[in-house]
Specification:
about 475 residues; binds uridine-5'-diphosphate-glucose; about 45% helix
């Protein structure tokens, strides 16, 4: 019998790669006869040097501890990111540039002289890599898309080609709300940034990706049925596609999280010791994903807001320019002295999972990237939603309005999403339970933490879906 392998193609960004590898690990746990090859694309963004994340060491450690996961580096393509380029356009064209390399890699795997011969039972692509469906079709390999964001974003993407026709004007000029099946009516401002300018090529790429997802053999989503029941039902019922076009089966398999990446370095140990000394649930953690940066004026304003809130804090602060910026020059005069003992500012990659797991952490000011949101949910830490880019405003809206897991922060969109010190102070106080609203969010976070763990435990909704999927991949 041929050895059964799966081939995964994640997007070349950390939030997508880690999530994809976690999916691979979970499938292997369910089905010991599978093996997985991950094709790695490499992205170089010179202006974001300071966003360097431990991707390389992560990949190395996964490869060392999981012999059934193999990584193949695809050849580098000469396609640098231009600073003013639309990220969705860049990522879509970056995929196009990799097409021939991906096809070659798949063909090599299929023709490798291993005995027994290889069979690729599924090609699992990033949901923003739909151009690769062509290769799956050409080589006769069933192709699945993996959505590293939530069902709400998947629903919006699937529905976007329909919405494009239904709403002829720009979404921001729409009188009223945007109606998407399975989602609460959306204020136009909650639409993902790339969808806010219909004349941009970035928008066209979103319509393209959304339109092609229906050609896949299945849609795997990093969410769980208890978190997004209505949205998942709407997708499965075909409500997000026009004219009852059959929707590929939907597989909610989350939360898939890299929980075992405990950091051992001395900086982390010091940080953990500091957290150990703080009272239970007293520290606000601020962290904004792999590429969340703020302007210097906004950083100063944040510092003021944090100081005035009176709460303890742990702030992962990344400057836009470079890692060697002296934070004393960025922060207001005397800030570090005045907050000594009750606040800690980090300038490096934060061990986020370890921090969220710590009992001293009582709130998370987050950009609402999907992985961060799921991690927060898992550890029962309520959020204060400070979305920055991509689909984060959509996630924030849903976390606040539908799931009740986050406190709303008032962002001034006329001023590029500016948050004043007053608003941050108010938000942090509420998050830390100083108001009834905050208390409600805290309670809800505890309940959802339990539900998230049940979902991936034996017999849970995502556990069963993963079993089903792993079995399907063996047929
Ligand atoms: O200092 C840091 C910063 C991040 N992380 C980790 O890095 C991941 C970040 O993922 P996520 O919260 O999803 O943010 P992004 O890196 O910004 O992810 C991109 O991918 C996500 C999944 O598709 C989208 O939801 C986001 O909008 C998009 O920006 C999480 O696991 C964090 O724990 C750290 O450990 N330390």
């Amino acid at each position: 019998m041929a050895e059964t392998g799966l081939v995964f193609l994640p997007q070349a960004v950390v939030g997508h790669l880690i999530s994809t590898v976690e999916l691979a690990k979970s499938l292997l746990e369910k089905q010991p006869c599978l093996s997985i090859t991950v094709l790695l694309m490499h992205l170089h963004i010179p202006s974001n040097e300071s966003a360097t994340t431990p991707v390389t060491s992560y990949v190395q450690s996964i490869a060392a501890s999981n012999p059934r996961i193999r990584f193949i580096d695809l050849p580098l393509v000469d396609f640098p990111f231009e600073n003013n380029q639309n990220p969705s356009t860049f990522l879509s064209l970056f995929m196009e540039k990799h097409k021939s390399h991906v096809k070659e890699a798949l063909k090599r795997i299929l023709s490798s002289s291993s005995s027994p011969p290889k069979r690729i039972s599924a090609f699992v692509i990033d949901f923003f890599a739909t151009t690769m469906i062509d290769i799956g079709k050409e080589l006769g390999i069933p192709t699945y898309a993996y959505c590293t964001s939530g069902a709400i974003f998947l629903a919006l993407l699937l529905y976007l080609p329909t919405l494009h026709v239904k709403v002829p004007c720009e979404f921001k000029d729409l009188q009223g709300e945007v109606e998407v099946p399975g989602i609460l009516p959306l204020p136009p401002l909650a639409m993902p940034d790339p969808m806010m300018n219909k004349k941009s090529d970035g928008y066209d790429w979103f319509v393209y990706q959304g339109g092609r997802l229906r050609e896949t053999d299945g849609l795997i989503v990093n969410t769980f049925a208890e978190l997004e029941p209505t949205t998942l039902k709407s997708i499965a019922n075909g409500e997000c596609l026009p004219d009852h076009h059959p929707t590929p089966p939907v597989y909610p398999v989350g939360p898939l999280l890299a929980l075992d990446k405990k950091s051992q370095d001395p900086e982390t140990s010091q940080l953990m010791e500091w957290l150990d000394q703080q009272p239970h649930s007293s520290v606000v953690f601020l962290c904004f994903g792999s590429m969340g940066f703020f302007s210097v004026p906004q950083l100063k304003e944040m510092a003021l807001g944090l100081e005035r809130s009176g709460h303890r804090f742990l702030w992962s602060l990344r400057c836009p320019s470079s890692t060697d910026t002296d934070i004393k020059e960025v922060l207001p005069d005397g800030f570090l002295d005045r907050t000594k003992g009750r606040g800690l500012v980090l300038q490096s990659w934060a061990p986020q999972v370890d921090i969220l797991e710590h009992a001293a952490v009582g709130g998370f000011v987050s950009h609402c990237g999907w992985n961060s949101s799921l991690e927060s949910i898992w550890f029962g830490v309520p959020m204060l939603a400070w979305p920055l880019y991509s689909e984060q405003k959509l996630n924030a809206f849903q976390l606040v309005r539908d799931y009740g897991l986050a406190v709303e922060l008032s962002l001034d969109y006329e001023k590029d999403g500016w948050v004043s010190a007053e608003e941050l102070e108010k938000g942090v106080r509420c998050l830390m339970g100083e108001s009834e609203e905050g208390q409600k969010v805290r309670k809800r976070a505890e309940e959802m933490a339990e539900a998230s763990k049940k979902a991936v435990a034996p017999g849970g909704s995502s556990f069963s879906t993963l079993e089903l999927l792993a079995e399907k991949f063996m047929l």
